[in-house]
Design brief:
Blueprint (H helix, E strand, L loop, with lengths): L1 H23 L4 H13 L1 H16 L21 H33 L2 E2 L6 E4 L5 E4 L4 E6 L4 E13 L8 E5 L2 E5 L3 E6 L3 E8 L2 E5 L5 E5 L3 E6 L5 E5 L12 E8 H9 L5 E3 L3 H4 L2 E7 L3 H9 L4 E7 L2 E6 L1
Parallel strand pairs: 5-6, 15-18
Antiparallel strand pairs: 1-4, 2-3, 3-5, 4-5, 5-8, 6-7, 7-10, 8-9, 9-12, 10-11, 12-13, 14-16, 17-18
Helix pairs in contact: 1-3, 2-3, 3-4, 5-7
Length: 323
């Protein structure tokens, strides 16, 4: 069931990407050809495409030209009233299914979280032990403080931890497949689909990765450790102390990460859907400092040096393509 849900989610996201591509450049032969190949690949893709078209129209948007490249399977003729009722019911069902697939992960996080923030919102939370957690935009944590230990799980997004010292109770942060253990220190943790990144501002922490290639490392101030989301392998780098947690002042510093990873962070500050359908562009690695107070400008600064262009499809959608 988990695999089925993941496959449906992937297909829905890809369908929305294709909608944005076709709307941005409806007569591109390569786009039309590749979209047709994607449709022909699986029934899941075709179902997601039909659901995406229905939802797109339900939101009041005009379908891009050539959108009906793979129409729904023919159905027996029905009386006009029955056809109208069936079409209305099907539209609502498909729209609801699409929204459910997209919203399910966020709903699960919402149910588990003790503290969370919305898009573009940041928040400082003081825990019962005196530790302070600064939550970035669209982030969530689950907190469990007991006499034996202090445990926080970063469910999504990014957080800066300033941990109150308690020699009897270690403070543990789980984020994806990474675990950070401290007694009293300050550090930043960022979680995305590809990896977990930890940057240490003060004190000493131990970090471990779980998976096929486990690793355990001790970090000192100025160290940055990235734990691969699949293998658990830890890679190391250094970062200027003043840039750790820079997002608290509206700045995002990244070091040798993918464009997809940066876009995932910018989405937390932007009300629009941001899509990078070009997989080669999304895998490009970048290092830079971006202004979170102007996410459109940050997005342009991210992709333009790599030959990318940000297209504003509507107030609610941005698509990044090659020039």
């Amino acid at each position: 069931m988990i695999q089925d849900d993941s496959e449906k989610r992937r297909a829905v996201e890809e369908a929305m990407d294709w909608l944005l591509q076709l709307k941005a450049d409806p007569d591109c032969p390569q786009t039309l050809r590749e979209h047709g190949e994607w449709l022909a690949r699986t029934e899941t893709n075709r179902s997601a495409w039909r659901a995406a078209l229905t939802t797109w129209e339900a939101l009041g948007e005009v379908k891009p030209r050539h959108a009906d490249l793979w129409p729904a399977r023919p159905t027996p003729a029905l009386p006009r009233r029955s056809r109208r009722m069936w079409a209305t019911g099907a539209a609502f069902a498909l729209a609801a299914a699409l929204l459910l697939v997209l919203a399910a992960p966020a709903l699960m996080i919402w149910l588990q979280a003790d503290f969370r923030t919305g898009t573009g919102e940041s928040r400082v939370v003081t825990l019962a032990d005196g530790s302070a957690v600064n939550l970035s935009a669209d982030s969530a944590i689950d907190v469990d403080l007991t006499p034996q230990g202090r445990h926080v799980r970063l469910l999504s997004g990014q957080a800066f931890f300033d941990v109150a010292h308690d020699g009897r109770r270690p403070f543990t942060v789980d984020a994806g497949n990474a675990k950070v253990v401290v007694l009293g220190t300050a550090f930043d943790v960022a979680l995305d689909d590809a990896a977990t990144t930890v940057q240490l501002a003060r004190g000493v922490v131990g970090i471990s990765g779980e998976g096929a290639a486990r690793g355990v490392a001790e970090m000192a101030p100025g160290d940055m450790a990235t734990v691969d989301g699949e293998t658990g392998l830890i890679t190391h780098a250094t970062v200027p102390l003043e840039e750790i947690g820079a997002w608290r002042n509206g700045l995002l510093f990244v070091n040798d990460v993918t464009v997809d990873s940066v876009v995932a962070r910018l989405r937390r500050y932007h009300p629009a859907w941001i899509s990078v359908p070009d997989r080669a562009l999304g895998r490009q690695r970048v290092t830079g400092l971006y202004d979170l107070r102007d996410p459109d400008r940050a997005l342009a600064a991210l992709v333009q040096p790599l030959g990318g262009k940000v297209r504003s499809v509507s107030a609610y959608a941005r698509i990044v393509t090659r020039f």
